[in-house]
């Protein structure tokens, strides 16, 4: 009897062993199949990206750029190096337009004289005339990740620039600031305040640079199909043209450290800029969701203009 029990135990062990082996085999099979399917999908998507890139190199992009095009474009940034790190493709094409003239308004000097000089040098490489570059220096606007700049100060300066130079298009960061930098986000709320209060002249439109998630931010060419399908306005440069943007960033010698070098290699913002036009309805929704931020930072901009935000 004890012998039969041993046989039964051995039988059970063998049965369980076979079942485990079969389960492992099927798991390996499914993983292998999924791997090959993902590999094929990746290869197909890569081909699509390359196809888009090759086609777009040979066509005129004017139909997808800002309508008009605007004769005077104001780029509003928070720090020296923002223009090269985030707005390079936009600047590249606007500076080469026979119709448009670009102005750069930077709201901090980065804390020292060297960074101001680096901004002049960078602007020269990008093709922005030195006379069109303005740097605001104020103790109320420190270069800090943790500081939200006062909206009224920003808005007043932006509005003054719009009216003084008859700006047709203002471009800055969106509500996420690309890198979630609070100085960047403050610029968005400044133009939002101007629009909500109907201070923006009728001849001027507002646009923001689209922020994307961390994966899209660093996949460069692979973000091309998504960018083209998800936005109305975009500026794309080729790899040859992109070298000019990288050279411009090198002018910021004090900031061109190893992690920014990596950023300039992989970031989609050195390859394509996608823009969204600011609408009053979207702004009202943003203000509702960011009610605490608005209450602590927003003050009405004192100006007698009665023009509407378009």
From TrEMBL:
Protein's UniProt keywords contain Cell wall biogenesis/degradation: no
GO cellular component terms attached to this protein's record: endoplasmic reticulum
The organism of origin for this protein: Odynerus spinipes
The protein's name in its UniProt record: N-acetylglucosaminylphosphatidylinositol deacetylase
Alphabetized GO MF terms: N-acetylglucosaminylphosphatidylinositol deacetylase activity
Pfam families with a match to the protein in the record: PIG-L (PF02585)
EC numbers for this chain: 3.5.1.89
Membrane-spanning residues: 34-56
Organismal lineage: Eukaryota, Metazoa, Ecdysozoa, Arthropoda, Hexapoda
InterPro entries per the UniProt record, alphabetical: GlcNAc_PI_deacetylase-related, LmbE-like_dom_sf
Protein family per UniProt: Belongs to the PIGL family.
Alphabetical keyword list: Membrane, Transmembrane, Transmembrane helix
